[in-house]
Give the backbone structure.
Amino acid sequence: MTFTFKKAAFGGLATIGAVALMAGCASAPEESGGDSGGEALDYLPCMVSDAGGFDDKSFNQLGAEGLDRAADELGVEAKKVESQAETDYASNLQSLVDQGCDTIVTVGFLLAPAALESATANPDLEYVSIDDTVDQDFNGETDAPNIKPIIFDTAQAAFLVGYLSAGVSETGSVGTYGGLNIPTVSIFMDGFAQGVDYYNEENGTDVKVLGWDREAQDGSFTGGFEANDTARQVAQGLIDQNIDILLPVGGPIYQSGAAAIRDSGRDIKLIGVDADVYETDPSVGDLLLTSILKGIDVGVEDAIVSAGNGEFDPSPFVGTLENEGVGVAPFHDFEDAVPADLSSKLDELKQMIIDGDITVESYLAQ
């Protein structure tokens, strides 16, 4: 079977690797405050979280870490406002505008409408949108010239983890569930399922993916991004179907999955998303096979340092395997549980995706 690679929607805009982002971003002024003894930089970077909060051990936390690193590099103080619910988004943004913020970072797909309204009303301010292109009219372009999207084709990394999971599974069933059926969540689930399908095609196996239907583009969802009893019940429903690998997608809902795994008393491996959850939440480290990574912190840091130096660039950044904007975390405690030939195969598949020999379908791979 021949596979072809679909280029990311923004093509050449996704050319800066996550590592290169840090090395290649503009240097802070020599007299920028901090310890330099020079004049303090007159710049206020700000951030609004989504309802998951900055302690979600996931994408909100990564965004905040990137903002804080950029503020330290520039020698300025940053402001962060945490949303408790979707109804807080507009008022939180207005609060930051009123406090004189120069650049406002919005974390998450769900903030896009409020971000667009604020950016349109304040054309002299700069906005950075994590996880959404802010294309509300669906014409393929960001709807305001003062918004920079930072988005990630996580389907590519999830494909590799799906292949890995199919190769490690002993029950022949793996599961996934999400917070809401929105593109930035389902992109993980769909890429994961594609990786399992590819493993089955190559190896003549029939590993099943529960919790996501590629044809229907629908599956198991908790209705939000809270670690609550609903999320636990959804996880338990998959565990009851004999899965032995579980991929929760949606901030802290993985904590409910981890609790359900522990209650089951079974050998079920957990997969993290966004951050290397083994590092951000050691309490579940013994369950984690790996994590599907987004370079959110690096993307935010680069955007804010550039903006603070008067070089704000609204061009979208699209994270891919090629530019290291997405990736797969180490296996940590499960290093010995992954056969060497399977680990080598993942390296081979990664290069095939980068070279264009495998298509990983997603809404960003047009």
About this structure: Confidence is low (pLDDT under 50) at residues 1-37. The first strand starts at residue 45 and ends at 48.
